[in-house]
Structures are given as C-alpha cells and as structure tokens.
Amino acid sequence: MYTQCEAIECRSIVPLQDTPSVKSTFNANLAIKKPYTAIASAVSRGNTTKGNMVVYHYSQEIPVPSYLLAIVAGEIEYNSTGKRTGVYAEPAMIKNASYELAEMEDFLDTIETVITPYVWGNYSVVIMPPSFPFGGMENPYLTFVSPSIIIGDRSSANVVAHEICHSWFGNQLTGRNWSHFWLNEGFTVYSERLITKILHGEDNFTSQARIGVDNLRDVVNSFMKDGKDEYTKLFPDAKREGPEDIMSNVAYEKGFLFLRYLEKVIGTENFYGFLRVYVASYSYKAIEVWDMKRVFEGYVMKLPRESLQADPKELLEKVDWNKWLFNSGMPDKEHTIYNNDAIKEAIELADYYLNHDDSPTDNNYKKFTLDLRIIFMRRLVNGLDKLSHDKIKRIDNDLSLIHISEPTRQAEISYAVFCLKKKKKKKKK
C-alpha cells in the first residue's frame, strides 16, 4: 500500500489546504499487523507493539508542503548503503536494489560540496511495486522509485540523483504554486546533471542534456500540434489549468536550459555561488520566480567586475526573463545544442540504417553507453516511416535488438524496441 499526494491528492487523506504555498509539520502513528512494516516521510520515533499490531511513530519537524506527505506499508525490509543512505524493498529485491543504488552516498556528498549541507538527516529510497506510475517521487526521508530502474548495471541511478537534489529544490524551498513548478524541477535537473558531470565526466553530462533536449522537443511539438501552446511555457497559467495537465518535461528541460544560460552569463563558479545564496535565502519557504530573480540580480550586482569580466548591470540587461518565462515553444536554437563526437557517432549510425539498404561497416553500438543507445534508438523511432520490414530485420540481425537474448529492463530502450517490433509485425501483415 502506498500514497501519492502530488499534485493535489493529499486532500483525500487529510483535511488541509492542499497547496504548495502552505507548509506544515506533522506527526504520524501508523498501526499495522505483524510482520508488515509501515513507513512515513518523516523521522522514525520508534514503535510500540500491541498484540499482533505494531504502531510506528513518525515526526516531520521540518515544514513541508502537503504533496510531500507519504506513507508506504507492506512486506519490506531495509538495507544501509552508506552512513546516511539506505534502501527499502521487498525481500526478493533488496539485494539487487542495494547494488543498483550503492552510489547514493556519493551523490549526496557531491552535491553538498556545491550547494549547501543536506538538512534532512538520513536519505532512504523505497523500491515501489510495478503499479507505481512515476520514475520517482521525492518524499523527504522516503523517496519512492519505480522498480524499472533496477537494471543490474547502475545505468539508471541518475533517477535517484534527481530525487536527492529535490531535497534542496522542491522540498527545502518550494515553488509557491504550480505555475512555479519549474523552480522545483529545473533546478533539480541542473543539480542532477551537475552530479553526473562531477562523478562521470563532461561527455556523460552532454549526453544526458542531449536526451533532455530531444525529450523537450517532442513534448513541445505534441502540445503545439494539439493547440496547447500554454503548456509549452516555462511559466504556464495554473489558474486556468489543472496542475497535472501542465506538468511535463517543459518544467524540467526548459528550466534546465534557462539555468544553463544564466550559468553561461555569469560564469560557472559564480553560478554555484548563486545556488548557495538562493538556497540560504529561501530555505523552508514557498517562493515565486520573482523571488529567485531578485536574489539572482542582487547576487550578480555584488560580484566584482573582474570575476564577471564585464559590468554586472550590462550582463543583467542581456537576460530576457519575459522571453524565457512566457514565450511558448522551444528556446532559441543556440541554447539547445548539446553535441560531442560520441553523440554524432550514435546519430550517424542511426541515420545510416534509416537511409541505406545495407549494413554499416563501422558499427560500435555494443560499445555505446546507455545514454548513447537511447539517442540512437530515439533517432530510429523518430524515423520509423523510413524503416521497411527488411531494414528492421537487418538492424535486428546486426544489433540483436528485438530478439535479444537478455531483454533490457531499461524503460526507454524497451519502448523503442516495442515500436520496432510493432512496425515489423505490421509490415508482415
């Protein structure tokens, strides 16, 4: 059993003002029959036993918005993965889950060195049942993640890096309403990819950013095609739309691109300094984008001219906040270019299969990282109309994608393979 309160479902559990603008503390006493365990998104205060019932006591002393109230119960056990981190899972999954997420302590240590200390004490992840409809949910002390990230090679652990970064952006300081959703997600994506850059290098960072841009373009094109231009704005009008309707990759990826632009305007080290000032200024508060803008501009104006290599006021005048926040569609092309030799190789390989009737002589697919495979497969799926039955058969023979001996459990690759299978079967008919 589990709860899912984001965006406005907490009102079905507790009578309260179900809005991120209101933060509160809470206590929870959860009674459950042995041998099951019940956990809340709060600090454990022990348990008491009454016959065949166990009452678990929890206290959340840091004010949080209602959507971060969470409960999970079932036959689950815990395994520590670091001095502050650990995993809850069903007994059959606990070993694999602990291996998959062994880097969590490194993720925490890494982002703390750039931003500010982690204020929540411990960090735990719960591996949810397959019915859980999201990749992850950043409940404090108790992140929920999909079992689809347990692949065996730690290649989807960035999902947990993302949820860890919500500990600062979303949980510690929160967008005041759902129009400001990008303050939670854009800063979190930026921080997640910063972890990737520090731990795994610039090429991996670039690959993940490229996947993000491609995802954003697909979502924007879909919304625009349906006449939902409002949904493609970084700051959509939440007063006229339901929050679930406007939640999309736009907040994540357009927000990331805006922050990367601001980083380039003032320089990387200066931008890291801004992140620290921003978090310190609004910890435990619900804020609006104008609060963030005020802190950013105030911070930049105090920077020495030599660190910016330009006049602070002149730099700030270049930033078109209204364009970034209120324009629909994709950002200008110059802000969406993420490329390197490895990405080019993946795209060129996909294009060869799309545009030729033979196999390429130079094929390094099996050496590709997961991100490069996603880029390659996305390119194939987007060009599906060019793929005849014979071409799909050739791709399968060369790369063992469809009749693969060990089917991948990575969700995006699985979806791409499904699309190829569907096209192949349709052609047979």
Short description:
This protein is an alpha/beta fold and 429 residues long.
Which series of helices and strands comes N to C?
EEEEEEEHHEEEHEHHHHHEHHHHHHHH
Q: Order of strands across the widest beta sheet? A: 6-7-8-10-9
Proportion in β-strands? 5-15%
Tell me the Rg in angstroms. Answer: 23 Å
Q: How many helical elements?
A: 16
Shape: globular
Task: Write up this protein.
The two termini are 43 Å apart. The chain is globular, with a radius of gyration of 23 Å. It has helices at residues 94-100, 104-114, 158-165, 181-200, 202-225, 243-246, 249-266, 268-282, 289-302, 305-308, 312-318, 321-326, 341-355, 370-382, 389-399, 411-428; strands spanning 23-33, 37-40, 43-50, 53-65, 71-74, 77-80, 85-89, 123-127, 136-137, 143-145, 174-175, 286-287. Helix content is 45%, strand content 15%. The model is unreliable at 404-408 (pLDDT under 50). The strands form four sheets. Strands 6-7-8-10-9 form a five-stranded mixed β-sheet, with helices on one face. It has 16 helices and twelve strands. α4 packs across α7 (249-266) and α5 packs parallel to α14. With 429 residues, it is an alpha/beta fold.
Question: Features of this protein?
Answer:
12 strands, three-stranded antiparallel sheet, 45% helix, 429 residues, 16 helices, five-stranded mixed sheet, alpha/beta, globular
